[in-house]
Every structure is written in structure tokens, then in C-alpha cells.
């Protein structure tokens, strides 16, 4: 019959998926062959669409054939718009919407649930940021977007909150996560609704301010001892604390996210903790310290070392009613071959105690790449003859009396390769002396990267024999000299030091230099106002006397970023200035938002913007002044220089302030990060 009615076709329409809880659930099954709707025989999708579009909300009669039998069912035609999202929520840095019919059809699941459409911030639930459905938050079910919104409105800022969720492809495996609510960095709590008349999505703020954070109260905790037969090692667990660092946005080329490592208590009475900069990459972050896997307290960054890969954070000791202990610190430097005991935690936070020895002490410089970000340099690195230590991201090196001889920490290069090395305790305690006096250390450094040089290489490169004899007499552990591997530049586009690549160091302020620790010692004994040291070097086989300017660590931290057209801009941070010899400008592209004009017009990460509509933009202030006259939905012409190739090119970009407004994030007078939104009147937008 169907061949006679439709002689040009060679098949009929067959049901492939029936969505659970939909209008056809229980009526139409997979494999059913469609014969007619409301008495009209069907051969194409066009006919089906015409019938359904004219019967939205009405009941239709469908004739199907199943296993050779004719079956008639009555089914209500659902409005496709009712199961296609026309709004989305932005909160805690993440976008949500009701699950769409289109996605539900792919996975053959009910069209319901809160879908995580663009995860970041608090809701970065795992390394896979996509295709999650939120089932409950704070132990309250959230079957749809409205219930999700009402629940979130009641949760205080900075609260650890349980969330239950599952993946679209696996309804039977519930997943759980404890997240930190962030509505102070990621302030937006808005609903965007599609406006079919204007063609835009209209934004409405749901809640101007979050519920205030819950007051912190002192709590008790019990420590588990380290698994060791020696009593002096068991209680070292009281000197460790787990550090969680949440970074809300990109800064200094570090992406947003959360990292965890164990830190070591430097002073339990004052609340100082040493932690790797692998975890605390910068000071635009939320830091929580977890004691005895039981209680958490917030902490803030006190000090970030510009080159050696560690940070010092501070917490309020009155909030921790637990036997936190300051370990005993040795005043003797570790040497090659010396026996130590490693006490620490694996990457899965499993405690380890392992007797080992120091295999070497070398100058460590993390490798650089074309996407510069913080990397440790000029570190007197301790290597251990221990596989267990290599597999651990944090720990301490102690002697038989449980005196701390060194810290074991994660380091990272620009290609996300992790390293674990040790730092001698005496290379760090100088900064702690300042903190214990109530002042912040203003570390000064020679802004250059150094490598070691053998005596043979030094002789070939012109170091006089009398100097080689002096060096050999001084060296007690390893005979070597230092040579300059790289010189940074400052923001004024000038070399940060009078040293040059290839210089071989002989002395600093008349102190013979055989290792980087010697330079540190000279700088630490300078008067606070001293800005230079006198160095004797060999350059081109000649001995030169140089006056070398020191760089202050406090000026190496970023204090301002600008978001424009979906691009995050900042001044070139220290890692950029370590690898580039000439700055095209101080407007450096840090990151680009998905779907933004900057992505659409290929602005490019790690590039420099040198001009806007012909106006030079040497600084971020110059850039903001140049973009003020650019009206909404209009084009501008950018001059850009790529990195590292330094290839200049021009790019045209169309701004869109409705979705990507211009904002600043900068430090105030007390070094706190604050937002500043550039108003419409400032940039002459609609």
C-alpha cells in the first residue's frame, strides 16, 4: 500500500529513540515504523513537521506498525521551545541552563536537570569540565534551574558546600564533590534571557550581594602520627598542613583552578606556613589551610619569592585548637652524601617516612618555553637517593634528632612538567626572621639566571690560574664557578643588570663566589638602603669590575589587569621579561575567553598590543585611553607583535560591550585586589 501511495520512496520512517518521561514514553518504542498521523500517510519528515507544528499542545493519533501489527496511539505534541533553553545562569564563574532536548536526545535521557554548560570557578568539578548534571547542592535537590537558583541564594560566600552530580552518559553513577563557594572574586549572579525582538540576551541580576560568610570559630582536631618506629619522627605530622589554593582567573599566565599540596609550619605561634609556588602561584587567590584533615582556616599570602619557588602564607592560630607544632630547624647546610630521613606525603596525601641520603646539591633552573610563566631559577637544589621522595610532592628532610634540614617541594616548568627537589632550610629562614619581627621581607636579587661552570670550562674561557686556585681552595663540596645564563629586562625595556650572558663570576663585594648561596649571603648582609653590589667577572677573557644593580622582589608582582573584548591584558610579568630581550609594549595578552571578539578575530595569547587605531599603547593606561572612543559594535584596528617570533601584524576587531564589557582588576593602597568596571559613559557605548 505504501509503495503504491509513494512510488518514489524506498523506505519508511522508523523510531530510533523515545525519551524517558516524554509524551511518547510507553507509547512508541524503538523500531516502530510510522504509517500515518491523524489519518494522513507519512513518507517524509517534512510532512511530520507540518503536522506537529500545526498541532502543538494538541493530541494526535499515530498509526505505527510493530512486529507486523498495526498499533494506534494517541500522543500530545510537545512545544519544542519549552524544552529548548532560552536562558542561562552565571554564578560562581560557571554557566548553567536547563538540560536541552538536543542533548537529552543524544544520550536518550529525560529532558530535565541543571546542565553545567561552561564550568570554571567553584564548579570546576574535575579535569573534565563538560557534560555534568547537578543533582543537589548543599544537600538540597535541584531538579531544575529555578530550584538551583533558590538554593544558591541561601548559601553563604566562602562556604565549603557538598554537591551531588552525574555525567550525562552515566545516570547510575552518582558523584560527589566538596566545593568552595566563590562569590567575591566571581561576583556575577545573573540570569540571561533570549530576547527574540532585539536578538540579544538580556541580563538580570538575581542577587546583588551574597549571604555573608559564616563566622569562623575555633575547632579542635586530632593528628595521626607518621608511620615510623622512631618516636622523634611520629609527631612531625603536627608540623604539616594541607594547603588549598583557588585561583579564580588567569594571572601571570597561570590558569584559574585549584591546587593542593602540603605546607610546613614555620611558626605555630604566629601562624606562618611555607608552601610551594606550584600551589600558591600568585596572591590573587583564596587560600585555605586544612589541619589534621579535620578543620580549615583561611590564609593570606605574606611573601612570594621571585625565583626560588616558595611562598609564605599566614593564618590565625587562635582558630586552631590542635597541637600544631613548630619543628626544630637546623643551622647547618646539607652536604652531598649526608644521611637524612625524608618525611612527607605522596601526591595522594599518603604519609611516607624513608631513610635516605643527599645524592647531590646543584643549581636548578626550571626549563623555559614559549608561553612564559613562573618558574624557579637559581635554586640550590637538593637531590635525594630515594624513589619514595621522588613520588612525593611535599615533605621535609630531618636528621636523627628530628631537626629539619631541608624542605621538599613541587616545582613546575612552563610545559606543566613537575619536579620534586629539596631546598636547604638555611636558604629560607632569613625571610622568616623578618616575619617574626612583624615586617615583610623585601628580598633583593640579581635579576639574572645563573648556571654552574667546571674548572676546565672556566680555564678555557679565560679565568686566570690564580683565581682558579682561590676557587679550588674555597670549595669544600663541589669545585665549580657560576656563569650568567640569561639577563632579564625591566619594564623600562632596559637590562636589569650590568652583567651579560656568558660572564663568569669571581667575587661579590670581595667575597669569592662558587655557588649561588654565596651571592645570597652577600646580599643579605647589605644595608637595607643599598641598591648595588660590586662584582668581579671574567668577560671575553678579561677581568672586569662591575657595579651591579639589585632588583627588589616587591616590584615583580602584578598589580593590575584589564579585561577588554574578552581578552585579559596585563603588563609583561617577570617570567616574560626573563626570556625576551625587547618589550614591544607593556600591553601583554594573557588569556582569551571562548566566543569573545578576541577569539573570533584571532588576537592571540602571549602577543603584545602596540597600537589601537594608530594610537601607541605602551602601557595599560595608554590602552584604556585609546579604547574609550571605540563605540559598541564598531570596529577598531590593532597593531600586534607576536611572541616569541616578534612578528608585527595588524588585526581588525569588532567590540561587543553587551557581552564583553571593559573592566579593571587592580590592587588598592593596602595591596587588596578590587574590581573597577568601566562604565558605559566612559567608553561611549549604547
From TrEMBL:
Protein name: Pro-apoptotic serine protease NMA111
Domain PDZ-like: 82-158, 558-633
Record SUPFAM superfamilies: PDZ domain-like, Trypsin-like serine proteases
Domain of life, source organism: Eukaryota
GO molecular function (one): serine-type peptidase activity
Provenance organism: Ambrosiozyma monospora (Yeast)
Keywords: Apoptosis, Hydrolase, Protease, Repeat, Serine protease
InterPro entries: PDZ-like_dom (IPR025926), PDZ_6 (IPR041489), PDZ_sf (IPR036034), Peptidase_S1_PA (IPR009003)
Domain PDZ: 20-66
